[in-house]
Structures are given as structure tokens and as C-alpha cells.
Amino acid sequence: MSYRSRGLLPCLSVLLLVSCDGQPTSNTSATPRGAARTSTPGAASFQACATLDVSFHGQSLDEVSLTTACTSGLKVVLHGIATFDKKTNFLRLPVALENGTNVTLRAPAHIYGWEDSLRVLSPHGLATNPHTATYLEFTNSDSLMSIGAPAFAGASLWRLDSLLAPAGQPQQILPGARSQVQWIEISVKSGVHSLSLALGAAATSAAAPAGPILVEVEGGVHGSPLVDSIAQVGDVVAYDFTPAPGFTNVQVRLDGQAVPTFGTILAG
Prior knowledge:
Blueprint: E1 11-20, E2 23-28, E3 44-57, E4 60-71, E5 74-78, E6 83-85, E7 90-99, E8 105-113, E9 118-122, H1 124-127, E10 136-138, E11 143-144, E12 156-159, E13 172-173, E14 182-188, E15 194-205, E16 211-216, E17 221-224, E18 229-231, E19 236-243, E20 250-254, E21 257-259, E22 262-266
Parallel strand pairs: 1-16
Antiparallel strand pairs: 1-2, 1-20, 3-4, 3-15, 5-7, 6-7, 7-14, 8-12, 8-13, 8-15, 9-15, 10-14, 11-12, 16-18, 17-19, 19-22, 20-21
């Protein structure tokens, strides 16, 4: 099971029921040693932007290249093979977020672009024609932010909140890892030889200092962890306790609450 502490640093304490010749001799409760944080750390936002250049050869996709335009550790990357459907004229670009920071990134996370993020590069006649905006259009964004929105006004938004990690795992991007792919789909009218696409991205981190997982284990217990350790917010820490020979009925408490004898703790 997973457990998220609510404003407390995680703490394990073990309540051990000791048996002697089949008769219980004592019930001893360990006192939790976790300490409350004096304040809840604020979320930090990480931004990124990138430019993708796409060229066509006849009616076939020729080349896709990505240039990182700005980064705060978060990066927009190509993660897969781009495709172009000649029947529908839909260009599909596999884009992901890469965590180059030293903290775990979480939702809200999104990629965004405006109408003027799409630009015809060639042929020259289309590139310099002010009336060719409809030659390139986003077709599959999750939402279009209203002009009056406080952020990303008028932008097409692709959400990655449920794509930060494989299904069944906490939706977060660990340092050095990538999100799942979010496909960016663009309608490209005939006559476009090459185009440029500028994308922005943002993700959030509960930027907090490392904190202790305090462990207090009474005699007669096997398992781990048996000693105190340090965990960063967002770390997943496994624990597993069993009775030693001659002992029965291990009980585990996390921040004072009874939990199974094995599982995981989500620090935070």
C-alpha cells in the first residue's frame, strides 16, 4: 500500500506482541518519533521550450529535428518516430518531457503552443505570405485556453498529468526520467515543404528539503528498514517486517496509524 503523510515526516514504529510458550507476556507500544514540519513547502514551477523543424520530400515526411530553446532542467524531447498521413495530411509528433532537474516533477504538467507557434519555412511564397495561417493547424489539443485566462491565454494545451509515469505507478517524473509520449497532431495543407513548430512546457515540483524516515523497532522483529534514513519528498520507500523465531503478531504503525506489515511509503 502507499501512504502519503499529511504534513508529517513519515515515521515507522513497531508494536510487537511477544509470545512465550504460546502465552503472550507483554504488549509494548513504541512511541512515534516523527516530527511535524513547521510549514508546508510551496510548489516550484519548471519551464521549458523547444523548436521542431519538419521537412517533407514530395508527399512524404523527410526529417524532423528538435532544438532546445530554453530549459530550467525540464526538457521537451522527441520520444519516438514522427508520422505523416498523406491521405489526411496529418502530421503526428511524439513529444515527451524529460526531467533534467534533481527533484521529482509532478502535475500539473502540460505542453502548449499558440497559433503563431506554427510557421511555414518553405516554399518562400508561402513563408512570406501573411494569409497562410490556415495552412498549419493544431488538431488534437486537450483544450484551448480562453483569451481571458490568467496563463496560457489563447494557447492549445496538451495535458500530461496522467502520462508522467507508466500506468499503476505514481504519476511523477523522477530525476533523469522521461514521461510517456504525448502526440502533437498538426494539419498540414498541400504545398508546404517545411515548417517550424515552437512548443512550451511546464511541470511542477513540491520542492522540499529531504526529511528523515524515523524507525523505532522493538526486539523480536526481522525486516527493513531497521535504522533511520533520509528520504526526499516523492521518494517511494519499501518496508517489510516479520516476527523473529519465538515471536508472533508484528504490528506496524505509521504516524500513529496501523498499517500492514509490508508495503511502501510515499514520502511527502
